[in-house]
Amino acid sequence: MRIGIIGSGRIGGTLARLLTAAEHEIALSHGSDPVALREQIAELGPKARAASSDEVADFGEVVILAIPWQNRQQLPADRLKGKIVVDAMNPYRPDGGLYDLERSTSTEEVAMVLPGSRLVKAFNTLHARDLAVRGQPDRPIEERTALPIAGDDQAAKRVIAVLVEQIGFAPVDSGSLREGGRLQQPGGALYARVVSGAEAEADLHPRGVGIGAQHA
After folding, report:
1. In terms of residue numbers, what domain contains 50?
2. How many domains does the chain have?
3. Comparing 27-31, 132-136, 186-190, 212-216, which segment has the lowest mean pLDDT?
């Protein structure tokens, strides 16, 4: 699959490494000239390329957003219409605090600037260091570290669930973009929580109905 990643920092860079290792083609963008990514792309190998954010949006069958949340207005919204877009961002201010969203959620705010995209919330709950080392593709799904997925487009969530499995984690359906997104964002019950897929499924889906259960 062709996957675009807008943002090459800790989360974006880690996902680029995991997804190229899973044999996906990656286009990665940086806040400045793509030339700045030369060394990072060389380390990722032949399945990775550097590109502008517009080029990344055009390239990806799936596009992952991993830029600072406050820069969401700069995303190429027109190019992302109709695409599966993954919000891996969290609403931290530059000073390390959190933006006050009142009754909204961070992903609902992203959805407002990306009308027509098939938005999914994922890859935002684990610290980059955990995302980098906790993937275990050789273990049963229920024993792997859980990665929750929220969204209103069920088909889009299933596509992301497969990617989560391929990089060695257990996909767990946390619910709708609003309710699941609230659980996943900082301060939510699923944020920075390192548990197995089985534990997460038991908490969220007592009857065993969830993305992880469907793919086990």
Report:
1. 2-215
2. 1
3. 212-216
